[in-house]
Amino acid sequence: MTLHISYVSDVLCIWAYVAEVRLDEVRKEFGASVELDYRFIPIFGATHNRIAEGRKDRGGYAGFGDHVRKVAEGFPHVSINERVWSDVAPTTSSSAHEMLCAVRTLVSEEVVDPARHDALGGRTIFEEATWQVRSAFFEHARDISDRDVLFDVLGQVGVPTDTIAAKLKSGEAMAEMCRDIELRDERKIEGSPTYYLNEGRQKLYGNVGYRVVSANLRELLEQPGHQASWC
């Protein structure tokens, strides 16, 4: 049995950044028993409105940077650059989402190798690309709303940038990104990150510990068919 999971996030979400290690654990613990489908939603689609204006009374971008660093203090496995949000404030996460949707399409078409790689810690190139885009901002304070930055990051991962550019030019990447937003609305996804399980019967949203994630996945894998557990 293979369990299909949609994992929904925004690349600029600090909670999704710190939760990336849990995805690594899911891959290690469950292997081929779990198939992860990655989707993106624009929580930070317009950061000026959300942060500069929306948090004006709490210091705007600089105050939000302080908040992000305070959150990260509880997660020693991640590093947050002191320039994040205070000096480097991406205008949108949607640029990154569109380009990652292009990579996702290239993987589905097998233009890019869909296999997992030991050299990438058991991730696929798409999964590594997503992680490197997150890290480019949070760890290295690079502006991932800038397409030149994104092309550089994805090129270093090993994705041919000319194939990404073709998906952007054709509108296919934009269409994929719009479909992710449609799925957010259809599935009533509340925020980032969210695990969407069991055809929507279960949703794990926010800073959910790994043991909770693991217990939910094991319950679904161990129950025959669609039989619900009495407990």
Question: How would you describe this structure in keywords?
Answer:
alpha+beta; four-stranded mixed beta sheet; globular; 9 helices; 6 strands; two-stranded antiparallel sheet; single chain; 231 residues; 11% strand; Glutaredoxin
Account of the protein in words:
Helix content is 50%, strand content 11%. It is α+β, with helices and mostly antiparallel strands. The chain has one domain: Glutaredoxin, CATH 3.40.30.10. The strands form two sheets. It has a four-stranded mixed sheet with strand order 2-1-5-6, sandwiched between helices. It has a two-stranded antiparallel ribbon with strand order 3-4. The radius of gyration is 18 Å and the shape is globular. It starts with a strand and ends in a 9-residue tail after the last helix. The mean pLDDT is 94.
CATH class: Alpha Beta
Helix content: 40-55%
Fourth-tier CATH superfamily name: Glutaredoxin
Beta content comes to: 5-15%
Please give the domain count.
1
Biggest sheet features: 4 strands, mixed
Question: Widest sheet: strand order?
Answer: 2-1-5-6
Count of alpha and pi helical runs: 9
Which CATH architecture would you pick? Answer: 3-Layer(aba) Sandwich
Structural class by secondary-structure content: alpha+beta
